[in-house]
Amino acid sequence: MNPAAGMFPPPPPPPPPFHYAFPMQPPPYFYHAPMSPVWPSSAVPVRSVWAPNLKHESANLRHVARNAQYVAIDVHYPGVVHHPSQDHNALTVEERYALVKANVDGLKPLQLGIALYDSDGGYLDAWEFNLRDFRPQADPHDENSLAYLAGRGLDVGVLRDHGVSADVLSKMLFESGLISARPRRGRSRSWITYAGAYHVAYLLKIVTGGAPLPRDVAGFNGAVRRYLGDQVYDVARMAADCLDMPLGLESIAAHLGFHPPLGSPRLAAAAGVHALQVFMRLKYGKLGGDVRRYRGLLEGLH
């Protein structure tokens, strides 16, 4: 026995291990909770993609896209130049589609925003692809629309000088696995948009190398299923069935407690982030988790 054992008090117990709580990682989500798996946070980063960082962000996109279960898109484009001759609500679906097709076939997209969410890991990432193909001196556009986008921070001159081409973006989307011309195996990926007829139509134009849209609604729906699958949802249609929802994506997001993302708070990627956040909140917080009745219905078309 050590004679000095009882002469000194025992040493204090070691402190508990320190665990750092990462601010980007939400707590575990259980689907019975009346809230969205996408946490209302101002810390959602936006990766702005230009020609100099295209290779780096291509690798990032491929890494995240592998497990993405939800993809939200938003396209900024230079307005519309073909308008209906009567009230838009009085048009048939085919007449509405003819307008969408005329505008999308004749105009060039400016930005594509993509937000990806993996509900298993709880990660939300966003990219904003800046496109260089538009030339205001030569390409059709609406001056008021360009002025509106300029007021939100979009500079078409900078896009032209430092952006990427739509063809390069198309290749990048296919290589990432987000877009495929073959049916996707395994669980289906959901695509989200807000007032999405034009957004989905421009995405099809990008991934098909600028080819004209299909001639009718049936062909358009078939192309959507081919490239995106059959899980396509429009937040505007969902919000219309929820009481006390304001109009406009930014107003709905603010009403539900979501804050603008970091990096590009008022352009295409921010709209993608908000569309995804609002979708998850409406799906699980307002609509009981079942949104099958909204599948494939795009505001402004169907």
Tell me what the structure shows.
This protein is an alpha/beta fold and 302 residues long. The chain has helices at residues 54-65, 93-106, 143-151, 156-162, 166-176, 197-207, 217-228, 235-240, 249-255, 268-286, and strands at residues 46-49, 70-76, 111-118, 123-130, 190-193, 232-234. Strand 3 and strand 4 form a beta hairpin. It has a single domain (46-294), classed as 2-Layer Sandwich (Nucleotidyltransferase, domain 5). The chain is globular and about 50 Å long. A 6-stranded mixed beta sheet has the order 1-4-3-2-5-6. The protein is 36% helix and 11% strand. The termini are far apart. The protein is built from 10 helices and 6 strands, in the order βαβαββαααβααβααα. Mean pLDDT is 85; it is low at 1-9 and 11-36. The longest helix is centred in the C-terminal third of the chain and has 19 residues, at 268-286.
What is shown here, in short?
This protein is of the alpha/beta class and 302 residues long.
Number of strands: 6
Structural class: alpha/beta
Strand order of the largest sheet: 1-4-3-2-5-6
Question: What is the rounded Rg?
Answer: 23 Å
Q: So how many helices? A: 10
> Largest sheet at a glance?
6 strands, mixed
| CATH architecture identity | 2-Layer Sandwich
The CATH class assignment is: Alpha Beta
Q: What features would you highlight for this structure?
A:
about 300 residues, alpha/beta, disordered N terminus, Nucleotidyltransferase, domain 5, single chain, 6 strands, globular
What is the element layout, followed by pairings?
Layout: E1 46-49, H1 54-65, E2 70-76, H2 93-106, E3 111-118, E4 123-130, H3 143-151, H4 156-162, H5 166-176, E5 190-193, H6 197-207, H7 217-228, E6 232-234, H8 235-240, H9 249-255, H10 268-286
